[in-house]
Each structure stands twice: as C-alpha cells, then as structure tokens.
Amino acid sequence: MTGREEPTDAAILDALNKDPAPDPAYPSETLAVAIASGGVNLNAILYTAAGAGPHPTVLLLHGLPGNEQNIDLAQSMRRAGWNVLTLHYRGSWGTPGAFSFEHCLQDAGAAVDWLLEAGGDCALRIDSGRLVLMGHSMGGYVAAHVAESRPSVLGTALISPANVGVALGLLPRIQAVSVIDDNVGTSEGLHILSGTSPQVLASEASANTETWRLENHAPVLASRPLLLITSDDGFSEGSAALALATSRTGSLTQAHFPTDHSYSDHRIALQIEVLGWLARLLSSSPQQG
Global pTM? Predict the structure, then answer.
C-alpha cells in the first residue's frame, strides 16, 4: 500500500496551501510554554488554531535526537483547526536535565497531563476531550507507550515508529553505540543531547529489550483509532508486528511511502495522509466543549 488513493477534499487542500482568515478575537498564536517534568521545565511550543474553539489538540513528539521536527506538519494541522503541542525532552535541544529513553516516556506523559489540565484554561482553547498523540521515529514509540496508559487519548498516529527495544537492544553493543552516535552526532562534535552518551543509551535499550516493543502496546492501541505510516527506512519490521496485532479490530489505518526516514521528498504526501486521518477521526468524535 502506498498511501490512500481517495480524493483529497477541499479542507485538506486549504490546510496545505491556504492561510485561514484572521480572527482578531481568537487569533492563531505560537506560545512558549513550560511543562514540569522530572524536576525541570520542558521547552515546549503550543501552536494554537484560530477561532473560539475549544480545538482538538495533537501532542507531536520528535525522535532521536529530533533533527526532523515535523513543523510543516504542525503548521498544516493548525491550519486544519487543530492545536499542536511540541516539546523537547529532558536533556535535548536546551531543555535542562539528563536525556534518557525513560525520561522521554515520562516527559511525554507529563505533556499529556498538562494538556488535560490546560483544558480548563479558556485562553488556550484546548479541547481536552479530543487529544491525539502523534510521534515520529523514537517519538512514535513514545506516543504508543504513553497512549496505552492514557485512556482519554482519542487516537494515536505513528510515523516510522522506532521499535526501541528491538532496534537497539538486540544489536551487538558496539553496533548499537554506532547507530545511536550516527543519529545524535556525538563523535561529530554536536551537543544536541546532554547528560548522556551513545554508550549509556545503548545500555538502557539493551536493559529494556523485552519491555520496549511496539507490539506490547497493541491490545490497548487497537481499542482506539490508530494511524501507522511507514517508509523505506528499515524500521518497518516493528510496525509490521504492531499492524499484525491490531489489524483485526478495524481501527487501524496504514500507509507506506517509498522515501527515507525523514520523508524528505514526501512531505506533502505525509501531510495529506495525516490530515485525512484526523478529519475522519473528528467526524466520528463529537465536540466536548
């Protein structure tokens, strides 16, 4: 399967290439917010949609280390009427603290809890009854893990999710260290992550090989709408295991694109797929208000 063949409707086309009409009373805003987690404040951005709302809201999680932030996707989702919250995990991109996979799971959970609480703040216009978790690469695994323990989440979207326990934990240690270093650029002199090292992260993945598997979360994910997007990046094995475990429920939507891990030449196609899924999700979910 290479993406959905259904026609692209006008609302999706508008979200891709047309700015919404300004709303002086309830404008779109890009707000810096601090989310408490593990004794520090996570650097986060809330992209609010125009209009009185309250608006359905996506928590958009980046991968390891997050070179691809998917901000184009965040902006198109906002134009489609969704708020979008992005964040940097502890120890990444200037957020204080030490980076670890476990901290990523905790930080994403704290962000969901923040959104649920922020639903009571009329100024933020967040519909806490319509929250979606979305993640790319490692962020895809984080989204799956956190969604399992948050029954209030309406649906989950995974973009090339990294099966962290298997993808790193089963590799010989020297190879796992090399793969992580290739991603985070420590040997190249980059300082994207703090309080950790490729060696430390490889050991953490190895210690959680059986626990951090995508398919472990299938029973709960299958009970709600799930979008699973893959590419030709070598991460499809874990997605296939998850798809097999959830495909009989009817809640799974799948798409595959012949591109790299960052969807470098399929950015528009990726947005169309996500926007279409979100529109269908809303059509089956009444507004909570």
Answer: 0.94
